C-alpha cells in the first residue's frame, strides 16, 4: 500500500517564496470564486471591493497599515520564540497584559507631556507582556514545562484580568454603572501619520527591522538558531540554553505586550475586553507564513491586514460574515500551503508508518 | 456616416446624462446601514434587530444593508461605518453598547449622517441619538409566568454581564415571580458573554443540576433552552419567540420589536427632523412585548399577566413601585414611591430574593 509523504526539497523551488505565495493566492481566489458564485455574489465585484477597500487608495492603505501593526508585532513575538523552536501561543494574553500596563500609566500620567507619557506607556506595555511570559519562561527553562500549554492558558487569565479591572477598580464613575474604563486622555494617544494611520506604524516597522537585523546579522541571532536546531550543539558551543530559553520567551512576551500598548494608544479609546481582537492568535499564522523569520513578518502582516480589511469591507455589500471569514482563511491557507510545497515535495512511498522526512 | 456618428454620440451623451442624474439621485436617497454585534442567525438579539431592519426596509422602501459579528472596542466598527458612508449610507444604526463612544466621535466627524445607538446612555442633541426599550415591563410579566411554573422554587437565571440593563431585567423578573409565588428564589449565573452557546448551555446545566426547574436568561442564543428541554425543565426565552427551539420547555419570552422605531428614525432622517435625543420604548408603543404564553400554563396566571400588562400600559402599575427591598434587606424603593428612570438606568444592586452578586 502506498501513501504520500512530504520530502524536503534539496533546493527551495526556483522563484522561491513570492512565486509560491502568488500561486497559492490564485488558487485560493479561484476556490473563493466558486464559494461566492454559490452564495449568489458577483465574484469580480467582491474581489474588486476587497482590493479597493484594503489597497485602493491612501485611506485604504492607512487602515490596512493600522491593522498590520498588531498583526506584525504579534507575528514577530511568535517568530522570536519560534526561531529557537519555542512556541509562544500566549501573544493574545500578552497583548492584553501590555495594554493593562499602558492603561495603568495613562491613569497616573494624565498631566505628563505627551511624548513622556507615551514612552512610559509603551515601556510599561513591554514590561506587562514580558511579565505574563515570565512564568512560562522560567518553568520551561528550569523544569522543562511545555510552554505551549502555559502560554495558552495565561491568555484566559489576562482577558479575565481586564474584565475584572473594567468591571471593578477601573470602572469609570461617570459610566452610569456600565463596565467601562475611562477614555484615554488626549496626551496618551499616538499622533497620526497620514489619513487614518497612526504613528504605531513607524514604531512597529522599526522594531521589526531591528529584530530582523539582530536575527540575521548578530551573534545573538546565530546562537538562537543554533540552540533552536540542536540543544546538544549549543551546549557544546558553550551557549547557555537555560538563559536563552528564558530571555527569548520573555522578549517574545514583551514584543506582544508592545503590540498591546500601541493598539491601546493608537487605535482604541480605552482598555476593553475586545482590545486583543484575536491578533495574538493571528500572529501565530503570520509567524508560520513568515517561516519564523522576522524579516518576513512585515510583508506577511501587510498581506494579512489587507485580507482582513478587504474581507470585512465586503460585508457591506451583503456578503455574510461567515463567507467573508472563509474567504480570508482560504487566501491565507492557500499562501501557507504553497509556501510548504515550495520547500517540500510530495512523494508516494510504500508502507504504513507516518513521518515527515526533513 | 458622420451624421450617424453624431447621432450615436448624442444618444450616448444623453444616456450618460440620464445615468449621471440617476446616480446623483441615488446619492441623495436615504440609505440605512446596521452594524450588528452578533450574527443575524443567532435567533436572539441580533436576529430581532435584523427582523426590525427588514420590516423598516419594507415599510419605508429605503435601501438597507448590514454587517454582522462586529466586535466592540476595536477599530473594526469605525472602519465599517466609513465604508458605509463612502457608499452613500446616511443613517447608521449601531446595536451594541460598546459602539457608543465610536458613534459619538463619528457623529461629530460626519454631521450630515444620522447615528442612532441602541442601549447606551449618550446623545448629542443633533445627529447622534439613543434608543432603548423598557424591557423590564415584559420581564416582570415573564417572571409571573416563571413563578407559577416552578415547584422547586428555584429559578436559574443565565445572564451575560452585570450591567444596569441586565440587573434591571433580573430584578423585574424576580419581582414578577414573587407576585405569583412569594417563596421563589432566583439564582444568577454570569457567563461574561452575550453569545456563546457552549458557555450558556453549561451555565444552564449547572443551575438544573442544582435543582432549578425553570431557566430564565439574558443571552442571545437558544442553548439554555435546549438544556432545559433535555432536562424536562421549563424555560423563559428572550429577544424573540424561541418556542420552535425548545417546544416543551418554552414558557414565554420578553421580546423586542425594533421595526417601528427603525421606521421612525429613518423617516425622521428623510424629513430632516431627527433630533438626536433619547428614546425609551415600551409595551405601550410596542417596542417591547411578551411572546405568547405556553398552552399548559394555568388560565388564572394567564389572566393575571394580561391584567398586569394592561395596568403597565395604562400607567396604573409599575414593576418598580415600592415597597421594594434590596438584596441586603435595605429599602430600595419606599412604599408609595416608584423608581425614577435615571435610577433604573444606572441600577447596580439586586432586589431581595435574588441569589448571586451584582458586581
Folded structure, characterized:
The complex is a heterodimer of chains A (358) and B (359). Chain A has 358 residues and is mainly α. Chain A folds into two domains: 1-41 and 320-358, no CATH class; 69-295, no CATH class. Chain A is built from 13 helices and four strands. A two-stranded antiparallel ribbon of chain A has the order 1-4. Chain A has a two-stranded antiparallel sheet with strand order 2-3. In chain A, β2 (192-194) and β3 form a beta hairpin. Chain A is globular. Chain B is an alpha/beta fold and 359 residues long. Chain B has two domains: 10-133 and 257-281, 3-Layer(aba) Sandwich (Rossmann fold), CATH 3.40.50.2300; 136-253 and 291-355, Response regulator (Rossmann fold), CATH 3.40.50. In chain B, the strands form four sheets. Chain B has a six-stranded parallel sheet with strand order 2-1-3-4-5-12, sandwiched between helices. Chain B has a six-stranded parallel sheet with strand order 10-9-8-6-7-16, with helices on both faces. In chain B, strands 11-13 form a two-stranded antiparallel ribbon. In chain B, β1, α2 (45-60) and β2 form a beta-alpha-beta unit. In chain B, α5 (136-149) crosses α6, α5 (136-149) runs antiparallel to α10 (299-314) and α7 (197-209) packs parallel to α8 (223-231). Residues 8-27 of chain B have low confidence and may be disordered. The interface between A and B is medium-sized, with 31 and 34 residues.
Topology pattern of chain B, helix = H, strand = E: HEHEHEHEEHEHEHEHEEEHEEHEEHE
- The class by helix and strand makeup of chain B works out as alpha/beta
Cα-based radius of gyration of chain B, to the nearest Å: 24 Å
| CATH T-level fold name of the largest domain in chain B | Rossmann fold
What overall form of chain A do the CA principal axes indicate?
A: globular
Give the low-pLDDT segments of chain A. Answer: none
Outline the low-pLDDT stretches of chain B.
8-27
The main sheet of chain A orders its strands as 1-4
Order of strands in the sheet with most strands of chain B: 2-1-3-4-5-12
- CATH fourth-tier homologous superfamily of the largest domain in chain B: Response regulator
Number of separate helices of chain B: 11
Amino acid at each position: 500500500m502506498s501513501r504520500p509523504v512530504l520530502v524536503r526539497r534539496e533546493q527551495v523551488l526556483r522563484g522561491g517564496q513570492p512565486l509560491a505565495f502568488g500561486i497559492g493566492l490564485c488558487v485560493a481566489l479561484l476556490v473563493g470564486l466558486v464559494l461566492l458564485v454559490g452564495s449568489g455574489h458577483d465574484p469580480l465585484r467582491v474581489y474588486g471591493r476587497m482590493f479597493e477597500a484594503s489597497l485602493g487608495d491612501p485611506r485604504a492603505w492607512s487602515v490596512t497599515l493600522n491593522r498590520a501593526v498588531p498583526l506584525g508585532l504579534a507575528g514577530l513575538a511568535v517568530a522570536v520564540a519560534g526561531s529557537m523552536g519555542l512556541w509562544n501561543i500566549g501573544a493574545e494574553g500578552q497583548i492584553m497584559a501590555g495594554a493593562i500596563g499602558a492603561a495603568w500609566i495613562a491613569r497616573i500620567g494624565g498631566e505628563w507631556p505627551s511624548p513622556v507619557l507615551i514612552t512610559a506607556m509603551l515601556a510599561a506595555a513591554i514590561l506587562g507582556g514580558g511579565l505574563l511570559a515570565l512564568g512560562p519562561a522560567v518553568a520551561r527553562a528550569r523544569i522543562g514545562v511545555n510552554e505551549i500549554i502555559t502560554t495558552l492558558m495565561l491568555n484566559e487569565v489576562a482577558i479575565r484580568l481586564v474584565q475584572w479591572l473594567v468591571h471593578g477598580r477601573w470602572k469609570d464613575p461617570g459610566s452610569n454603572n456600565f463596565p467601562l474604563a475611562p477614555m484615554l486622555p488626549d496626551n496618551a494617544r499616538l499622533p497620526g501619520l497620514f489619513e487614518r494611520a497612526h504613528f504605531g506604524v513607524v514604531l512597529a516597522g522599526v522594531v521589526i527591522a531591528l529584530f530582523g537585523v539582530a536575527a540575521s546579522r548578530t551573534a545573538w541571532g546565530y546562537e538562537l538558531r543554533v540552540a533552536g536546531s540542536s540543544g546538544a550543539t549549543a551546549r557544546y558551543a558553550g551557549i547557555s540554553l537555560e538563559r536563552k530559553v528564558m530571555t527569548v520567551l520573555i522578549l517574545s512576551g514583551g514584543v506582544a505586550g508592545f503590540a498591546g500598548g500601541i493598539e491601546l494608544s493608537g487605535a482604541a479609546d480605552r482598555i476593553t475586553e475586545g482590545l486583543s481582537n484575536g491578533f495574538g492568535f493571528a500572529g501565530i499564522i503570520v509567524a508560520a507564513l513568515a517561516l519564523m523569520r522576522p524579516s518576513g513578518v512585515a510583508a506577511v502582516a501587510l498581506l494579512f491586514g489587507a485580507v482582513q480589511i478587504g474581507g470585512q469591507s465586503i460585508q457591506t455589500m451583503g456578503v455574510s460574515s461567515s463567507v467573508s471569514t472563509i474567504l480570508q482563511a482560504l487566501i491565507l491557507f492557500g499562501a501557507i500551503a504553497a509556501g510548504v510545497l515550495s520547500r517540500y515535495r510530495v512523494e508516494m512511498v510504500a508502507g504504513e508508518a507516518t513521518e515527515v522526512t526533513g | 456616416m458622420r451624421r450617424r456618428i453624431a447621432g450615436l454620440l448624442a444618444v450616448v451623451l444623453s444616456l450618460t446624462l440620464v445615468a449621471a442624474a440617476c446616480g446623483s439621485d441615488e446619492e441623495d436617497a436615504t440609505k440605512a446601514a446596521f452594524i450588528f454585534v452578533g450574527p443575524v442567525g443567532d435567533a436572539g438579539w441580533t436576529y430581532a434587530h435584523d427582523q426590525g431592519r427588514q420590516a423598516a426596509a419594507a415599510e419605508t422602501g429605503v435601501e438597507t444593508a448590514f454587517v454582522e459579528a462586529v466586535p466592540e472596542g476595536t477599530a473594526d466598527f469605525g472602519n465599517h461605518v466609513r465604508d458605509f458612508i463612502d457608499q452613500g449610507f446616511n443613517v447608521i444604526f449601531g446595536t451594541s453598547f460598546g459602539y457608543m463612544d465610536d458613534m459619538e466621535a463619528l457623529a461629530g466627524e460626519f454631521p450630515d449622517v444620522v447615528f442612532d445607538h441602541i442601549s447606551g446612555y449618550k446623545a448629542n442633541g443633533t445627529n447622534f441619538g439613543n434608543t432603548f426599550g423598557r424591557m423590564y415591563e415584559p420581564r416582570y410579566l415573564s417572571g409571573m409566568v416563571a413563578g407559577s411554573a416552578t415547584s422547586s422554587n428555584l429559578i436559574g437565571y443565565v445572564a451575560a454581564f452585570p450591567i444596569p440593563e441586565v440587573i434591571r431585567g433580573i430584578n423585574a423578573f424576580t419581582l414578577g415571580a414573587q407576585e405569583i409565588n412569594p417563596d421563589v428564589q432566583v439564582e444568577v449565573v454570569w457567563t461574561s458573554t452575550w453569545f456563546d452557546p457552549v458557555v450558556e448551555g453549561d451555565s444552564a446545566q449547572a443551575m438544573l443540576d442544582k435543582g432549578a426547574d425553570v431557566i430564565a436568561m439574558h443571552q442571545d442564543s437558544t442553548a439554555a433552552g435546549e438544556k432545559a428541554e433535555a432536562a424536562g425543565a421549563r424555560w423563559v426565552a428572550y429577544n424573540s419567540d424561541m418556542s420552535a427551539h425548545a417546544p416543551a420547555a418554552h414558557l414565554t419570552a420578553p421580546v423586542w420589536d425594533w421595526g417601528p422605531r427603525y421606521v421612525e428614525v429613518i423617516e425622521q432622517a428623510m424629513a430632516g427632523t431627527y433630533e438626536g435625543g433619547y428614546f425609551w420604548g415600551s409595551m405601550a408603543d410596542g417596542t417591547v412585548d411578551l411572546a405568547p404564553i405556553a398552552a399548559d400554563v394555568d388560565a388564572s396566571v394567564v389572566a393575571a399577566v394580561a391584567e398586569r400588562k394592561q395596568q403597565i400600559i395604562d400607567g396604573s402599575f409599575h414593576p418598580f413601585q415600592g415597597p421594594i427591598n434590596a438584596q441586603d434587606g435595605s429599602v430600595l424603593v419606599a412604599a408609595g414611591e416608584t423608581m425614577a428612570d435615571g435610577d433604573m438606568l444606572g441600577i447596580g444592586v439586586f432586589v431581595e430574593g435574588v441569589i448571586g452578586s451584582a458586581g
